[in-house]
Amino acid sequence: MSALDYLRQRNTPRTGNQILSRSGRLTLLVGIAILAALGPVVQSVQPFWLNLLVRMLTFALLALSLDFVFGYAGLLSFGHAAMYGAGGYAAALLVTEVTASALVVLPLAVVTGVIVATIIGWLSVRARGIYFAMLTLAFAQMLYVVAFTDLPATIAGMETVTGGDNGLYGIQLYELFGIDFRERLNYYYLTLGIVALSLAGIVRLANSPFGRVLQGIRENEERTEFIGYDVQRYKVIAFAISGGFASLAGALYVPFQSVANPQLLHWTVSGELVVMVLLGGMGTFWGPMLGAGLVVFLEDRLGSVASWEVILGSLFVAVVVFAPRGLAGSIITLRNDPRAAIGNAKRALENYVRKVRG
User: How does this chain sit within the bilayer (predicted)?
Assistant: First the structure.
């Protein structure tokens, strides 16, 4: 039996509702292998692109963390910048004051994010919909002000903790088994490996009984509670897990950029993150990661163009009109029936015009 036959035979989900089929997982593995092979090529051609790839990967991880609670538990968080920034600041302070060992800093940064997310989640999950989103936004902005005004230093009577509006500069890179992460290619592989492991972990969680309950909460919260599940507890745990991964993204980003500033906690980061998830295709995991990569790429390439946000906004409108399920939905549709692409686009436009006219 060939490997292809084996995959075809085993491609049918065991429960009928698996997140990512075996062929989908194989495609992701191929994508990761391509990214791994791409690193040395990019470095030899133009090292700058390696920096861009690292930023794309860290935001892909951040988008993945939001998709876990937004796509699977229906919790629209406008405050994920809180955990992202908390992880970034935790990494900056630990590297500066304690140790630069990645084996120490990264786990502690994740724990920081989990603690922050647990507090925010516990105080917010009783609200629903837009009220939950506004509460998470409010908590993130509170943390932004705390970092901006360096409130911890004021309380502790220290000269500085967060560095105030200037932030913390000169954060050195991690140390791990004697590997020199000043070599950008090494840091690229570290980031790629962590993002790949995070994706595998989240897919595993989504396919577990815990993930099934989260989907049940998203589809019908009252019914899930009626059959005996503690919905609030599940939401808090999901939000905490998501916060841990968001914090990990921040802990990867800060040493790479050598700076931790209050902008990490600003609401614009959370807003941009929601756009990345919706643009890529909520609830697919790989779609939001693709959306994050695209947005970071466009920001970098169009940053010198005046009002480049107009271009990004136009792209988002086009996706909403022609591909309501995001880039992931369009790719899946194209894969299943390429000939129907133009017809589907026409029908999407007609439906949109019909809705606008009422």
Answer: Multi-pass membrane protein
Cα radius of gyration rounded to whole Å, the chain: 21
> What 3-state DSSP class applies to 179?
strand
Q: Distance between CA atoms of 32 and 49, rounded to whole angstroms? A: 17
- Amino acid present at 75: L
* Average pLDDT for the chain: 84
The one-letter amino acid at 172 = Q
Q: Which two tokens stand for residue 147?
A: 């970092």
Tokens of 182: 């000043």
Position 145: which residue type? V
Beta strands in the chain (DSSP E): 168-169, 175-176, 179-180, 259-260
Q: What is the pLDDT of residues 69-93, one digit of tens each?
A: 988 888 888 889 999 999 999 999 9
User: Looking at the DSSP assignment, which residues form a beta bridge with residue 176?
Assistant: 179
pLDDT confidence bin for 179, thresholds 50/70/90: confident
Could you give the 3-state DSSP secondary structure of residue 160?
coil
Q: Phi and psi of 71, rounded to 5°?
A: -80, -25
Please count the residues of the chain.
358
How many angstroms separate the CA atoms of 330 and 344, rounded?
Answer: 10
What are the structure tokens assigned to 229, written together?
């599940």
Residues 89 and 264 sit within 8 Å (Cβ to Cβ):
yes
Query: What pLDDT is recorded for position 292?
Result: 92
Give the whole-number percent of the chain exceeding pLDDT 70: 90
Ramachandran region, residue 152 (left: φ > 0; alpha: ψ -120 to 50; beta: rest): alpha
- For the chain, the first-to-last Cα distance in angstroms comes to 56
Name residues whose C-beta falls within 8 Å of residue 340's C-beta, 6 or more positions apart in sequence: 333
Query: In the chain, what are the domain boundaries?
Result: 17-266
Per the CB < 8 A criterion, the answer to whether 92 and 265 are in contact is no
